[in-house]
TrEMBL record:
A Pfam family the protein falls into: SpoU_methylase
Protein name, per record: tRNA (cytidine/uridine-2'-O-)-methyltransferase TrmJ
Keyword Transmembrane: no
Subunit structure: Homodimer.
GO molecular function: RNA binding; tRNA (cytidine(32)-2'-O)-methyltransferase activity; tRNA (cytidine(32)/uridine(32)-2'-O)-methyltransferase activity
GO terms classed as biological process: tRNA nucleoside ribose methylation
Lineage: Bacteria, Pseudomonadati, Pseudomonadota, Gammaproteobacteria, Lysobacterales
Low complexity compositional bias, start-end: 14-35
Record's subcellular location: Cytoplasm
Biological source species: Lysobacter enzymogenes
Gene3D superfamilies (alphabetical): 1.10.8.590, 3.40.1280.10
Catalyzed chemical reaction(s): cytidine(32) in tRNA + S-adenosyl-L-methionine = 2'-O-methylcytidine(32) in tRNA + S-adenosyl-L-homocysteine + H(+); uridine(32) in tRNA + S-adenosyl-L-methionine = 2'-O-methyluridine(32) in tRNA + S-adenosyl-L-homocysteine + H(+)
Catalytic activity, EC: 2.1.1.200
Length: 313
């Protein structure tokens, strides 16, 4: 079924209803003529975020196919007080359709950051949630939108950078992209007709984020208990949590160390590395812990080199 780019394409649960293993390589950005951003509002008319925690939460759209969907997502964000939009490898740049469907959220659209892939979009993040429609072979802890919003708000309130990630209109997030997420969020739509377009999924999560922020900002708010494995020590940490880029550096060194000691012994390394990624992401390591573990791995690699040299003598 063909969709008018002005009409957001229907999707299944946060933009997934096709083969999860499909190769969705993004096309180069197509030059588009977008209108100039709307003039700045008069002093006092600016729509303020609910609280500073909301400014630490970004929405990431991966491989978006229709520019109009980007504008609709920006509108959904702004109505709920979110302003940080990141576009990871969009097939087309925002264009006139994007600005038309943004309907007053031109500032969010104009300020959107374009990056080459999801890893770049979340490099400085400490907590990443991926919106997915199906259970995958990747063992991600899964939450509904209300739980996910509470987790995002708690992490942002503790000073962490948080990302909420949405996939392509037809194929959603690929497995290797979900590997970059700490957990998944699933919208429990009508099982008889669970098709949600991209902007609708963004609107649902944005609304829940606003409600979580309002609840946390209430004078006598009593926060609901959250899973310790996801929230971690929060504001009790003396060291800042490790960023996504720091964790990826650690995983790269971990893979090298396992190769150096022949841990896999001819077996495919991907399965073990996937499990180790899940283990360490659940642990919510801080920067000092990552430095400690990388020091251990450096010693492992050094010892392996010495043993290999001794065996050659």
């Amino acid at each position: 079924m063909n969709h008018d780019p002005r009409e957001p394409a229907p999707t299944a649960q946060a933009t997934e209803n096709a083969n999860p293993n499909a190769n969705s390589e993004a096309n180069p950005l197509e030059a588009a003529s977008a209108p100039a951003p709307a003039p700045a509002p008069a002093p006092g008319d600016e729509p303020a975020a609910i609280d500073p925690a909301m400014a630490r939460i970004r929405v990431v759209l991966v491989g978006t196919q229709h520019p109009g969907n980007i504008g609709s997502a920006a509108r959904a964000m702004k109505t709920m007080g979110l302003s940080r939009l990141v576009l990871a490898a969009p097939e087309k740049a925002p264009d006139r359709d994007s600005y038309a469907l943004a309907a007053g959220a031109d500032d969010v659209l104009a300020a959107a950051t374009v990056v080459p892939d999801l890893a770049a979009a979340v490099a400085d993040c400490h907590f990443v949630l991926g919106c997915t429609a199906r259970s995958r072979r990747i063992a991600l802890e899964q939450f509904d939108p209300r739980q996910a919003a509470a987790l995002c708000d708690a992490r942002a309130r503790a000073g962490s950078e948080v990302a909420l990630v949405f996939g392509r209109e037809r194929t959603g997030l690929e497995n290797h992209e979900l590997q970059l997420c700490h957990a998944a969020v699933h919208i429990p739509a009508n099982p008889g007709y669970s098709s949600l377009n991209l902007a609708a999924a963004v609107q649902v999560l944005s609304y829940e984020l606003r409600m979580a922020s309002l609840a946390a900002s209430a004078p006598a708010a009593a926060p609901a208990p959250l899973p310790a494995a996801i929230v971690g020590d929060g504001g009790d940490r003396r060291e800042p949590p490790a960023s996504h880029a720091q964790m990826e550096g650690f995983f790269g060194q971990l893979g090298q160390a396992l190769d150096a000691i022949d841990f896999h012994k001819g077996r495919t390394p991907e399965a073990a590395m996937h499990k180790l990624r899940r283990l360490f992401l659940r642990a919510q390591l801080d920067e000092r812990e990552v430095r400690l573990l990388r020091g251990v791995l450096a010693d492992v690699e050094r010892t392996a080199m010495l043993l290999a040299a001794a065996q050659k003598r």
